[in-house]
Amino acid sequence: MSYLTLSKIDKYLSKNRVFITVVAFLYFLPLLTAAETSSLRTLLHTLTLIFTFGILAMSFDLQLGRSGLLNFGQALLFGVGAYMFAFIFTNKAMPFPISLISGLPYPFALFLTILVGIFVGAVMGATTDRLRGTGFAFIALAIAMLVFEFFKTNSDISGGETGLRVEIPPLIKNQFTYLIFAIFALLVIIAFIFMVVQYISTRLPVNPFDYQKVNEITEKAEKFELTSRKIGLMILGLIIVGLVVASNVFSLFFTSKRYLFTIPVQYYLALTSMVVVYLFIQRLSISPFGRVITAIAQNEERVQALGYNTYRYKIITVAIAGGIAALSGALFSPYIRTLDPHTGLGVEIAIDAMIYTIVGGLGTLIGPFLGTGVVVFSELRLVDLIENIFPGFGEWWLVVLGVLYIIIVLFFPYGIVGSLQRRSRSLKETGRQLFIYEHDYWIFALIGTFLVFFIMFAMVS
Amino acid sequence: MSLLEVNDIHVYIQSFYILHGVSFEVPKGEVTVLLGRNGSGKTTAMKAILGLLPPRQGSIRFKGDEISHLPAHKIVQQGIGYVPDTRRIFNTLTVEQNLLVAMRRSGTKNQEDKFEYIFNLFPDLKQFWKNKARSLSGGQQQMLAVARALVNENDLLLIDEPTEGLSPLYSKNLLRSLSQLKETKTILLVEQNFRSVTALGDRYYIFDDGKIVASGEDMAKLTADKELVSRHLGVTTT
Amino acid sequence: MSIETSIYQKIKKFILTSRIVKILTLVIILILSIYWAYSQIEISVDAFTLKFGRSIIDGLAYSMLLFLMVSGFFVIFGLCDVINFAHGAFFMLGGFIGYEIYLASEIYLLDTAFLNNNFFVSLLAFFIACIGTASILAVIGGGIEVFTIKKYYGNVTSQILLTIGFMFIIAKLAEIIWGAPFQTFFLDSSSQLNYFFLGGVINLGTGLVFEVYQIFLIIFGFLFAGGMFLVFQKTRVGLQIQAGIEDAEMVEALGINITRLFTLVFMVGAALAGLAGVILVPWLGANTGHGTTYLIFAFVIVVVGGAHYGRFEGTFFGALIVGMSIKFCEYFFPDISSIIVFIIMSVILVFKPGGLTGEH
């Protein structure tokens, strides 16, 4: 039994090397600092926003990229989550039906929010019965606009122009939550190390952990001595890193400054949600359900002729997307701290989600997240960057962003990930000529991620 | 010399390899028939000639000139009329407007004569001249689709499955009109149902899986070759 | 049958069968009868009638303006299948370019002094502004199509990103040049003469006052719609565009240069947006925020009119419905005036999922 699960883990690790590398890196990041003010904390703060909107983009991509449903009402699905959390965690007294949920514990709040998101998504999806294509897009937009106007005019529930002030949920400020995430992060890192060890053992002609065999050969060749020394070095490095991390966690744990936990815990929450959503959509798209919705996107009549109730599939898709978007909103609300109708429900959100998805590549799952990263990071940092290079031209940043979009289209007509995937065969071929095989990709993922974060870090500080 | 010569064309639809080196020719004044099952590449061959799906390799010569590199409208302007498989008439336009859209600038001088010629061929169209094309019956729509290819001085007509989805009576009428046309025009016809065109066709090519597997100059002989017919056309002649 | 009678019969048939003519007649009869009733009754106008009359004139003028703007969006969307997010930006830019051209040509015309009549100076300056803006926008639109969008027909997501990119660029550049949206530029207040040839009001007494420019807008809008209708029904290019909206590949297979047609349509669409922008300026001024506001209206009107294989008339009626309902609500139900458009759109889409004229 235990052997069976172990071999299952083994198999999973060897099949998802790139994924584990990147996730381990992301989980590792917050453990590197305990300082009160550091560029790393700023970076974590930015990344939290990217993860939050990344989830929103994935929800949009689930609809448009996999099921061909263009949903301009995405803002509402997002706003549902954001406002549910704002209602629960605001200190402003709310009118009757809303007051019932105020002060709910965080896990229940999250659960309830996702449920409401699914419900609203289902209502939106119900209109797909008669409406397709642009018809659906605009009915969804109409629903979103109605809710937006409702919140805008009823300032007793939305706080009017100033917006609602959202308190940080107690759970986020708690060091035990941080500890749990830190332990989880260590588990992920252990999985990563396990994967590395496994990789080395399969890539070398002889398993270096099979001591008997190694001893047999060591006498003959020096090569493996070198390898074992390498492994020793690696373990030493890990111990040093572990010590740094442990001391950081330890020192942070005994601080009296509770607010220090907010940024890493929010980061971990967003990261974990994103990983869960990623795995969920990945599973969904290879399941029979996922195949049916992809088929509906391609030719609905034919799927109907095969005896599927396409209407039900579309409702479920929009409902799932609604739940995911609500989760994104729920992460956003305690992050932004002040929620007004424009930031929570504005049409811009749907447009942004669409831009993120298209920049990254439609239907590529990881693309929307990458697109979010590129766009959100540019939006936050472009002004400073331009101001540094051409002083006085900071306000040109939106022009530069527009040019950036056009450049992206010219070089990646199917989005960054989408265009690379279309060229993947030739890229793989080139890789093979350079003796890089698929099971080696994780090394490049690690280097790439490291470089990307290094550049981001340099730009933030 | 043949009016149209297709030489070893390779055609892709996006990344799908559809035609694997097809060659055939259409002699002037004859009716050439492309036969084959659904999805064997006949329609693709037609679209390749028109330039709607330009071949990646191979040559297409029309009246002796290479046309495979030209854009679709230039190819058509050299005198090719196209009758597509699902008619594809313009529903929101009237019968008259459908023909006006199709008429090239050179044809506008003797417009009335052209229309007269078409009325002779298809009297129904005169009756519904100002009606929306949407309101026509299937057979009348097919007539309109053929008429659209006739308003210009075309030397070659590409006709894709003209009898598909028509009642037997209408098919008969249409085939009669086509045999009338045969006297003045060269026709390249795509058909699944080879028996409906045995009387009309001269030369034939049989497509299977993107290649030409058989050809001949006498349709009547094809009817006799039961083995060939059942293997590549999927019909049994009893 | 002589030629005269046949032309006469053609005209007669056109008048009897054309929907636009019917609507036009109905509207004229409506206005005349309201005016007649108003002049007959000779009682003091109560607040309701006042509001009603104003809402109708305002609504019609606004509808025509929307129609002018949306018709460009519609031809681009219909034929090229491109959702042009930059259309609102074109419209806004058109307003500013027109504003600048008007002021510049006014100064020039006053300097040359061969015209010393204020009316003609203003008229000529406005005419130059319209033509100039339309041509500049046509060049911009054509340039964008030829250099970028042309390569991406069929790749909807790329087109969206491209047009959004241009939207950002134009909107931000306009903001850098003319300032943030809280400032609106009006013609008559910034002109040398302090005068605009269609300025002023028609006073029907007892508080019923209409701006002359609104009446001009209504007449111009209907004439323009009629002209567009004729272009679509009678000219080669119009028929080709209409056929292309249905089946662009087939149009190509009939020997029509569809690439050129697409570029032409893009130029015309952008020019119409610019023209609408100029026409807006004397009434509501030029404002850098107009782009986004009107883009949403463009979307809604096209969807209401019939997005897929829709017809030109659909856009006209869509604009009429949207414009009238907005202005009507502004006068009578100000609370819902910002959402009425979406309510109406929902109702129409529920009963006619393809919009007024489109196919589902």
Question: How is this fold's topology laid out?
Answer:
The complex is a heterotrimer of chains A (461), B (238) and C (360).
Chain A: H1 2-15, H2 17-28, H3 39-67, H4 74-89, H5 96-99, H6 106-126, H7 134-153, H8 155-158, E1 164-165, H9 175-203, H10 211-218, H11 223-253, H12 262-286, H13 288-298, H14 300-305, H15 310-336, E2 338-339, H16 341-345, H17 347-360, H18 366-389, H19 397-411, H20 416-422, H21 424-433, H22 441-460
Antiparallel strand pairs in A: 1-2
Helix pairs in contact in A: 2-9, 2-22, 3-12, 3-15, 3-17, 3-18, 4-6, 4-7, 4-15, 6-15, 12-13, 12-15, 13-15, 17-18, 18-19
Chain B: E1 2-13, E2 16-27, E3 31-36, H1 42-50, E4 57-62, E5 65-66, H2 72-77, E6 80-83, H3 95-102, H4 111-121, H5 123-127, H6 138-150, E7 156-160, H7 168-181, E8 186-191, E9 203-208, E10 211-216, H8 219-224, H9 226-232
Helix pairs in contact in B: 3-6
Chain C: H1 3-17, H2 19-41, H3 47-80, H4 87-112, H5 118-147, H6 156-178, H7 187-190, E1 201-203, E2 209-211, H8 212-234, H9 236-246, H10 248-253, H11 258-284, H12 290-305, H13 312-332, H14 340-351
Antiparallel strand pairs in C: 1-2
**What ranges of chain A have pLDDT less than 50 throughout 5 or more consecutive residues?**
221-226
Mean pLDDT of chain B: 85
- Low-pLDDT segments, ≥5 res of chain B: none
* Radius of gyration of chain B over all CA atoms, rounded: 18 Å
Can you tell me the overall shape of chain A? Answer: globular
Q: Give the topology string of chain A: H per helix, E per strand.
A: HHHHHHHHEHHHHHHHEHHHHHHH
Could you give the distance between the termini of chain A? 50 Å
Count structural domains of chain A.
1
Task: Summarize the amount of helix of chain B as a percent range.
Answer: 25-40%
Q: Tell me, briefly, the overall form of chain B.
A: globular
SSE sequence of chain B, one letter per element: EEEHEEHEHHHHEHEEEHH
In which order are the strands of the major sheet of chain B placed?
Answer: 6-7-8-3-9-10
Structural class of chain B: alpha/beta
Helix % of chain A is over 70%
Q: Major sheet of chain B, described briefly?
A: 6 strands, mixed
Structural class of chain A: mainly alpha
Number of helices of chain A: 22
Number of helices of chain B: 9
Task: Report strand % of chain A.
Answer: under 5%
